[in-house]
Amino acid sequence: MRIVADENIPLAEAFFADHGELVRLPGREMTREQVRDADILLVRSVTRVNAELLTGSRVRFVGTATIGRDHVDQDWLAEQGIGFASAPGCNADSVGDYVISTLLLFGEEDGVALTDRVVGVVGAGNVGGRLVERLRALGIRCLICDPPRAAQESSEDFVSLEALIEQADVVSVHTPLIKGGDHPTHHLLSGSHIEALRTDQILISAGRGDCVDGRALSVRLERDPDLRVVLDVWENEPDIDEVLYRRAAIATPHIAGYSLDGKLRGTEMLYQAMSRHFGLPVRKQLGQLKPENWLRRIAISRRAPPQEALLLCTRTCYDVRRDTLLFERYRRQYGMAKGFDLMRREYPTRREFSTLRVELKHSAGAVREVLESAGFAIRAPRK
Ligand SMILES: NC(=O)C1=CN([C@@H]2O[C@H](COP(=O)(O)OP(=O)(O)OC[C@H]3O[C@@H](n4cnc5c(N)ncnc54)[C@H](O)[C@@H]3O)[C@@H](O)[C@H]2O)C=CC1
Ligand SMILES: O=C(O)C(=O)[C@H](O)COP(=O)(O)O
Questions:
Q1: Half-sphere exposure of 255 (CA within 13 A, CB side)
Q2: Given ligand 1 and candidates 67, 233, 344, which is best to mutate, with the most ligand atoms within 8 Å of its CB?
C-alpha cells in the first residue's frame, strides 16, 4: 500500500511503514496529484479533505490525527465508501494544561488566587469537560455552556452563553467548528457577546478560530485594551489578523494541544483505526515506542504551600509565556503566515502534566490533593 502522511505526524514511520511505502508531505500544500496514488491518507487539521482533493484517487482510508474534523468532508467520504477516523480526545488534556498555565499566569499577575475566579467553559466535550473536572477538583467554581449536552442530560449544571458571560470571570471557548444544524458555532461568540464582556474578564479561545468573531474582538480591544484575550486559534490561519494578534494578551499559533503525548496518542489512534478498517492485526503500541521523558520527576517538600507547589510543577512542565514569546520571534523573523506554520513544525518538545512524576515525602495533605487535581502523577509513601 502507499501511505501519504502529513510531515507533522510523529512516529508515522514506526506505526505505518510495515504496511507499505510511506511518503511525508507538508499538509497545507497537499495536492490532488500528490495523493492520487495513495491508498491511505493521514492528515492534520491543515489539509482540506474533500472531493477536490480526492476525486479520481485510490484512497480507501483517511485518518486525521486531530480531535477537530471540520477540515474533512465526512459526508463525501462516506458517499465514496472511503473509511475515515479522527483521534477523539487525543490531546484534550494538553489543551487543559494550556488553560491551567494561563490561569496561573494571570492569577500571579493580578495577585488573585485560582479559586477566586469563576471559570465559564463553552463546549464541554473531551477538552472542556475534562478541563472542568480538573478545575473543580482544584476548588474552582465552573459554569458550563453546552446546549447539545444540556438538551440530552437534563441537568441543571448548564447555563446559557449570555448567563455564562455575565457570571464568569474567565470565558474559555472549546467548541468545534459546526456550520449547520441546531447548534452552529461559527461566530458563536458574536459581536454582542464580545461587547458584553467586562474589562476585568479574561477570554480564552482554543477551539477553532471561526467560533469567535475576530473583527468584533479587534474593534472591542481597540476601545478597551485592558480586556485580556488569549488566542490560540484564529480566523484565516496561518495568515492571521496582525492587528488582533498585537491586541491579544497571549497569542499562540494553534499549539494549545501540541504536547508530544497528545500528538503520539493521535498517531496511535489512527494506526488502530486503520488496522480495524483493513482487518489487520494491531501489533504496535505507543508504550513500546514512546521517547524517553527528559524531565521525569521533581521532589516537593511537605512544607511547600500548595499553590506554590502547583505553580512550580506547572511552570516546570509548561509555561504559556514561552510560546507567546516564541511566536513573536517567529513572526518577526519570517512574517506572520510563514512564522505561524514554522513554529508549529519546529515546536519544542512539550510533555503533558501527567508525565511529570511528583515525589512527595508524605502520603496525604493539601499539596498532594492540589497537584493530583491539576493532573500531575504523584509518587508518595504508602499510608
Ligand atoms: N487549540 C488546539 O490545539 C485544539 C483545539 N481543539 C478543538 O477543540 C474542539 C473541541 O474538542 P473536544 O472537546 O475534544 O470535542 P468534543 O466533540 O468532545 O466536544 C465538543 C463539545 O462542544 C459542544 N458544543 C457543540 N455545539 C455547541 C454550541 N453551539 N455551544 C456550546 N457547546 C457546543 C458539544 O456538545 C460537545 O460537548 C475540537 O473540535 C477542536 O476544534 C481540539 C484539540 C486541540
Ligand atoms: O486536535 C485538534 O483538533 C487540533 O486542533 C490540533 O491539535 C491542531 O493540530 P494541527 O492538526 O493543526 O497540527
A1: 29
A2: 67
Spell out the residues 6+ positions from residue 143 whose beta carbon is closer than 8 angstroms to its own.
118, 119, 120, 121, 159, 163, 164, 167, 168
Burial class (CB in 10 A: 0-12, 13-18, 19+), 379: exposed
Cα separation, 168 vs 148, in Å, equals 20
ipTM exceeds 0.85? yes
Mutate to test the pocket of ligand 2, among 8, 41, 91, 350 (most ligand atoms within 8 A of CB): 91
Strands 250-251 and 228-231: parallel
Q: Domain ranges in the chain?
A: 2-86+259-288, 91-251, 297-379
- Entry pTM: 0.97
Cα–Cα dist 305/116, whole Å: 17
How many angstroms separate the alpha carbon of residue 327 from the centre of ligand 2?
A: 17
pLDDT digits (tens, 9 = 90+) for 261-282: 999 999 999 999 999 999 999 9
Which residue ranges are tagged as binding site for substrate? 45, 66, 258
User: Which option is the CATH number for 2-86+259-288: 3.20.20.10, 3.40.50.300, 3.40.50.2300, 3.40.50.720?
Assistant: 3.40.50.720
Q: How far apart are CA 140 and CA 67, in angstroms?
A: 26
